[in-house]
Amino acid sequence: MGQTGPKTKQQLERGLGKVLFVDEAYRLGEGAFAQEAVNELVDTMTKPKFAGKLVIILAGYDNDMNNLLRVNEGLSSRFADEFIFPSLNPRHCLQLLGSKLQQSRISTPVLTSSKFEDFFDELSKLSGWGNARDVQTLAKSIVRAVYQNNPNGGQLVLSEEVTTTCFKTMLVTRRARKQAVPTPETIPLGQTQSLFPHREAPHFESNVSTAVQHSVERSQIEPPPEDYIAEPEAIEEIRDAGVSDATWVQLQADKKAAEIYAERAEKKINDQQQAVKAAEEAEQKLAAETKALQEIQAKNEQEASELQRRREEARIKELEAKAARERIEKELERRRKEEEEKKKQEAKVQTKLRQLGICPAGFRWIKQSGGYRCSAGGHRVTDAQLGL
């Protein structure tokens, strides 16, 4: 306290020649420190040092910003320019959802159905609807569900059942957060006189000086409300001595008003009890539906986890198989080159042996340990003689 004003002024000085953007600005309408900040803002903006020297933008939700502008009468006049960004309509929400799903390579033929626009229409009417942010949240849940329902890794196609389930899950969750018990109106005890229209009490001549039994006819009392339940024709009461007729009649009217108030109060309590009971039943129903959806979601997540594990295991095996194939291919290539080299060397040796003419018959030479022998067996040449 006492430091907020100087800090606010310091922030405005930092914004000179620039744009000062205050996000969630409606929080400046909450608490004593915020009030001091608003007062300093209103006072400083008109001073020559700051007027026309910076652009100040207050951003926030519409209703909350209206509450902020009521905090200080001068605040509204200092922020004359108002820019309202309308919410996305259901059709645009559906288009955005389709775009998000297509980014995840999911085919979305079912989104042409108008019922999904109706779902977005219901969601947008709930308080706290976050437009594109909630559309992205919905898209993530749908993507998760599509992958969970596609264990074989085939083409990803969005089904109507999966889409409807995800929409209903979000609707149930958002509605459950907003459940509230209605509070019926009550009649303050001090306002029983207003149950009857004002009218002067009738005047009667009376010489009563002692306590007597007196009967007041209903026509002498103010007319009761329309929902009043008639009592017996006469109300028998004991009247004290000295009580005037006007006071007595007014007393009877007040008693009747108290009775009517008690009846109404009891009725309102009964109505409230019925409302509480209905709210409890609605809450239990929603809780059961939410639990069922959560169980489905948990099961789907478990299946997705198992599917992911199997996919990872298959991917690792595929990599291992690929590495083994590459090793075999390399060894095969090495052996092939080695054999080709041997064949070339053998062809050279055979050519040289024929050129030497050691075997006049020209038989083929067979490789043996330490040299070669002709196929007829009569001639032999050593490796040393061949220069090998």
Give the radius of gyration.
48 Å
**Order of the strands making up the biggest sheet:** 5-6-7
**Ends distance:** 103 Å
SS element count, helices: 10
Strand content: 5-15%
Number of strand segments: 7
Largest beta-sheet characterization: 3 strands, antiparallel
Tertiary shape:
elongated
Mean pLDDT: 80
- Give the helix/strand class: mainly alpha
| Order of SSEs | HEHEHHHHHHEEHEEEH
| Total discrete domains | 4
Short précis:
With 388 residues, this protein is mostly helical.
Question: Could you characterize what this model shows?
Answer:
A hairpin with a 2-residue loop joins strand 5 (365-368) and strand 6. It is elongated and about 170 Å long. It is mostly helical and 388 residues long. Helix 5 (90-103) crosses helix 7 (132-148). The protein has helices at residues 4-14, 31-45, 62-69, 73-78, 90-103, 115-124, 132-148, 160-177, 245-356, 383-386; strands at 19-22, 55-58, 212-217, 234-239, 365-368, 371-374, 380-382. It has 4 domains: 4-78, 3-Layer(aba) Sandwich (Rossmann fold), CATH 3.40.50.300; 90-177; 213-346; 357-386, no CATH class. The chain contains 10 helices and 7 strands.
